């Protein structure tokens, strides 16, 4: 399903973003991309087409020919055969890093030391220790560093968050977030299965923790009560799937939150790939049961159902633009990544962004991931050695 959503995202942004390409401002932010990963097109290249304040001006790979091929495909002016070359380019203001998980911290650190602002793919780093060190450097350098939890920038997320915070349905009692991909959709040769690159389902599908924390307004859980990993047959250190129960202290109340990530989801009846399963979260409050379908890619399609326990009625909401944080900014065709880019540019330019993923939140995110891995017996992930 993740691959299908990525393809649909690309098509959506290509059709709308390309047709809505704008004239670039003379002082546009010049962004370089570290890696030629497939996600780059949806995450930064196409969103930048409709933003006058952004130019994707360079891409780097460890293989120059690969970088050149990628640059030609997406009309990127410069290609580099090493990441250091791009970072040493004075004409680059910021970088988007979509390298394997275990390399995030190292190259974000190098980018900050080179004076670049950083839009860093999730997960932020390999573990919490590395996250704290990276945050300290960003603060010292007075540069912008943000974890690319793009879904949090979308109006649908803000609408539900405002509904929960408003108290209409009472306090949150429990949550259950899940994300899966069908068995075989991510080949075993994929980097996401490699322990040396800080791979595993929870690392890749860290959205289940991100969504839980965001809607609870919480940091690190009081405890991880239980965590069960399903290791891969190839490497018992890597989780094919992870289930966990987290307990959060929310305003003095204990909330039980379950999470489930699965990068090798067994077929229904042993035959049918579960392509209908998209990232979702169920939130039960005192007076309602709320379900957010496809919270990760709400710009493609989503719905929020609210079952009122008191009236026994169900209402459905959808939000593609506006909302309590963006107001009259944004367009219904903007992707989560386009909203994220808008906020990133605002932050770099010293303007107040409509939404932001704080550095403290990213540390708490990695602390939670560490806690789950340690409770499962697999142990926390490690940075990839140089």
Q: Please, could you describe this protein's structure?
A:
It is an enzyme of class 1 (oxidoreductase). GO terms for molecular function: D-xylose 1-dehydrogenase (NADP+) activity; nucleotide binding. Pfam families: GFO_IDH_MocA, GFO_IDH_MocA_C3. InterPro entries: Gfo/Idh/MocA-like_OxRdtase_N, Gfo/Idh/MocA_domain, GFO_IDH_MocA-like_dom, NAD(P)-bd_dom_sf. This is D-xylose 1-dehydrogenase (NADP(+), D-xylono-1,5-lactone-forming). The chain has about 375 residues and is of the alpha/beta class. The chain folds into 2 domains: about 1-150, Rossmann fold, CATH 3.40.50.720; about 150-325 and about 360-375, 2-Layer Sandwich (Dihydrodipicolinate Reductase, domain 2). It is built from 12 helices and 14 strands. It has an 8-stranded mixed beta sheet. A 6-stranded parallel beta sheet has the order 3-2-1-4-5-6, sandwiched between helices. The mean pLDDT is about 95.
Question: SSE layout and pairings?
Answer:
Blueprint: H1 2-17, E1 29-34, H2 39-49, E2 54-60, H3 64-73, E3 78-80, H4 83-87, E4 94-97, H5 104-113, E5 117-120, H6 128-141, E6 145-147, H7 155-166, E7 172-182, H8 201-204, H9 207-216, E8 223-231, E9 239-250, E10 253-265, E11 280-285, E12 288-293, E13 303-308, E14 313-317, H10 323-326, H11 336-348, H12 359-376
Parallel strand pairs: 1-2, 1-4, 2-3, 4-5, 5-6, 7-10
Antiparallel strand pairs: 7-11, 8-9, 9-10, 11-12, 12-13, 13-14
